[in-house]
Protein: Arginine biosynthesis bifunctional protein ArgJ
Organism: Halolactibacillus halophilus
Amino acid sequence: MTTLKKGFTIIEGDIATPTGFEAGGLHAGIRKKKLDLAWLYSDVPAVASGVYTLNSFQAAPLKITQENIKIDGKIQALVVNSGVANACTGEQGDKDAVKMRDLMSEQFGVLKHHVAVASTGVIGELLPMDKIEAGINKMNRQTQTSDMFETAILTTDTKEKRAAVQIEIEGKTVTIAGAAKGSGMINPNMATMLSFITTDANIEKEALDQSLKAITNQSFNMITVDGDTSTNDMVLVLANGKQQHTPLTAEHTDYALFEEALTYVCQTLAKEIARDGEGATKLIEVHVTGTAHDESAQKIGKAVISSNLVKTAIHGADANWGRIITAVGYSGEPIDPNQVSVKLGEMMVVNHGVPVVFSEDAAKQYLQQTDVTIDVSVGEGPGEAYGWGCDLSYDYVRINASYRT
């Protein structure tokens, strides 16, 4: 199935759809039964760009990955484990991340500094390196598939997350595809969130870095599940240039199209993470307009979707708009309360700071849907932003009260 949208085509693809990429996963025994070790491989070194958690306790795999990318800006293989985060594990954790890199380098015959490493799971536990080494030795490009990659990176997620699109550049079909995991400890600047994106586009590293940084602020950094920023968040984009068109730079005529398509992939993955929040039953989209600039709208949007009172009201299908304007008011952004308007779906509940009479029954019926939209207008400025979150349910407490068991 394909769908045309704004100059690109949405396709039924996955992280291995772009030319030259392969991916797989397996059960190494880190977790009791689930697949827990994933791999990604490009048949040529790919231009790499990453963004990482701002948590001060940055996990060992992230440090190794960043150091490797700094050497020549390229990555050819990726290894990811779930179940153990390898965070707050001291010198031994660093050594284990390096060993994962070295084992992956040997298994796929690539340079050590062309290997990226990622981990997700329980913080403060050392990796079972005997199991990881045995698992890496069992990686098989013939029998393991990209859907196994998508499953192996999950922790408390209830489903796999993928997105793929295609665009035309100089007559060549370029594919951008991605996979992600994330369900709890989600409040990016970045959160226990991992996202890996591949493309066969030919793009200069500076342009890819510029795009990813800007797009992350419009996608992964605009989601929240529970307000916690993890130690292990990473978004990694690999562009192997297999389509061999003229290298994309900021001046290239198709650069904007590439950015638009990459934005779609990132926002789709981000929304799927929010939708799959631990215990979540609803996806909440907040649209903020009328600010002086986009950054202001982003801060207001994050305040609304991060509010536990808003999240619980949505879970209970309670049109308690007072919780929304309260979050807008404490966002730290300058607003005129007399200019603030709020809509739940198409239903206006506040107009220029004044309550609007509305049908509570109709509002409740709307809020019982699985997708809920909140529109907040704060004035006439050009600033605009979208943000995504989820409701806060009883199951969130149940899941996280027994996370280690």
